[in-house]
Write a structure and sequence with these properties.
alpha/beta, Rossmann fold, Isochorismatase-like_hydrls, Isochorismatase-like_dom, hydrolase activity, Isochorismatase family cysteine hydrolase
Length: 194
């Protein structure tokens, strides 16, 4: 590996790892599969901040009683603005708050209103401004918001890593299908467990 590759900035994109999507009492929870990746996500956040990296925390946001959003017909209300449901899950909330104070230039929080972290956000602009060409996706759900973000990242020409131990879904079969798609159709670097 060349010196340039070592020093090139990279970014972890943490998607929807919130109370509503992960906690046992979350409004649209993945449950245990999401809870089981908490330690891996914490390790990745710390790794990216100690190396040449950035951490983007991109979370779904909805307005209470919004019946015009397409997801209104598909899912119960979740990640409502100003609610506990939008807090990051478990120890990740505390970790990110602490690290924001220590590395304010390297932790960037964005709100999204569609599945993809790129849709309607300045994510691509910030990545390009920082010279970031390689991203790693983490969070939930592998086959929904991670998947849509991955498709956009592919179409925008980013190199993408997905670690199986840092993503989760409601549906184990859809999770595995998404990982296989990332690997065999998009050519992403998919890191498999054990």
């Amino acid at each position: 590996m060349s010196q340039k590759q070592i020093s090139d900035p990279k970014a972890l994109i943490l998607i929807d790892y919130t109370h509503d999507f992960v906690a046992a009492d979350g409004k649209l929870t993945v449950g245990e599969p999401g809870q089981d990746i908490e330690q891996m996500i914490a390790e990745k956040i710390n790794t990216y901040l100690t190396e040449a990296g950035y951490v983007f925390v991109v979370n779904d946001v909805h307005d209470e009683n919004d019946t015009t959003h397409p997801q209104h017909r598909l899912f119960p209300p979740h990640n409502i603005s100003g609610t506990v449901g939008r807090l990051l899950y478990g120890s990740i909330e505390t970790l990110v708050r602490r690290l924001e104070k220590e590395h304010p230039e390297k932790i960037i929080q964005l709100d999204k209103r569609r599945y993809s972290a790129f849709c309607g956000t300045p994510l691509e602009l910030i990545l390009r401004q920082q010279g970031i060409e390689q991203i790693e996706l983490a969070g939930v759900c592998t086959d929904i918001c991670i998947f849509h973000t991955a498709v956009d990242a592919y179409n925008k020409g980013f190199a993408v890593i997905v670690n199986e131990g840092a993503v989760a879904s409601f549906n184990a079969e859809a999770h595995n299908t998404a990982l296989a798609h990332f690997e065999t159709v998009m050519g992403f670097d998919v890191v498999r467990r054990g």
